[in-house]
Write a structure and sequence with these properties.
Elements (H helix, E strand, L loop, with lengths): L1 E12 L4 H8 L4 H6 L3 E12 L3 E2 L9 H8 L7 E6 L2 E2 L5 H10 L1 E4 L11 H5 L1 H6 L3 H14 L15 H15 L3 E4 L8 H16 L5 E3 L9 H4 L3
Parallel strand pairs: 3-8, 6-7, 7-8
Antiparallel strand pairs: 1-2, 1-4, 4-5
Bound molecules: adenosine-5'-triphosphate and magnesium ion (MG).
């Protein structure tokens, strides 16, 4: 059964974006919308992600990958269409239901790390657990194990600005791994890593998938294009 279902999603940025959806359905192009002051980031995306599946969204820079992934957990509300997670309509869910879903089922690794600058690396890695209400000793333990998984064992006491870009990206990954949710959304989670470390992290993640917890991952990358239909390059 599908864990994530995306139904006919459009995301248009600009004033009165709904008119952009109508125009696209009548055959207008992205360029036509731009002339009207609208940006068509996601055009008519529909797909399902099964439990345990690694689902990758590919497309050129600016084609809408980050926007699409943010629509999945409703950080961006779609202009049209909707998303279901485990049968719950995320698009129409109440604030409480959405917070519970994000806290308990979904982790996200952001393209630009999004670390809290005034908290230590360990506190950043443990952040999702703090939000989940996990006790201090357990979250310190789980955060340290997650940091070890991304080769940052012993760095828990450092501050984010003492780390390189690739190390900071791995803290973001550790934060998601520590949360141990069944859905992991990753927005170019490996982009700042050198090829050798990237390979190690990807293997690490594959082994998580076959371990006790199964995750559905969506990992946009700019390296190839495939999803003209997903992000709409009309
Ligand atoms: N908050 C926003 N407000 C207005 N326009 C936005 C916003 N976020 C994204 N866009 C626009 O939507 C389009 C898609 O952006 P998005 O960040 O989703 O692309 P991307 O595929 O992730 O690109 P990259 O590979 O460079 O990360 C771009 O034209 C961008 O300018
Ligand atoms: Mg992006």
């Amino acid at each position: 059964m599908a864990v994530i279902t995306v139904h006919d999603v459009y995301k248009i940025f600009g004033r009165r974006p709904r008119r952009g959806v109508d125009a696209l359905k009548r055959g207008a192009t992205r360029a036509d919308l731009r002339e009207d002051g609208l940006t068509a980031a996601v055009i008519d995306a529909s797909f399902e992600v099964e439990a345990g599946e690694i689902f990758v969204v590919m497309g050129l820079s600016g084609s809408g990958k980050s926007t699409l992934i943010r629509v999945i957990n409703n950080l961006h509300a779609p202009t049209s269409g909707h998303v279901e997670i485990g049968g719950v309509n995320v698009t129409t869910a109440s604030g409480d239901a959405l917070r519970t879903l994000r806290r308990e089922r979904i982790s996200m690794v952001f393209q630009h790390f999004a670390l809290l600058p005034h908290r230590t690396v360990g506190e950043n890695a443990a952040y999702a657990l703090e939000v989940q209400g996990v006790s201090r000793s357990e979250r310190e333990d789980r955060a340290e194990r997650a940091l070890e998984m991304v080769d940052l064992g012993g760095w828990g006491g450092a501050m984010p600005d003492q780390l390189s870009g690739g190390m900071r990206q791995r803290v973001g990954l550790a934060r998601a791994l520590a949360a141990d949710t069944d859905i992991l959304l990753m927005d170019e989670a490996f982009s700042a890593l050198d090829p050798l470390i990237r390979r190690g992290m990807q293997e690490q993640l594959s082994s998580c998938r076959t371990g006790s917890t199964r995750r559905s991952c969506s990992s946009p990358t700019t390296s190839t294009r495939r999803c003209g239909s997903v992000t709409g390059s009309r």
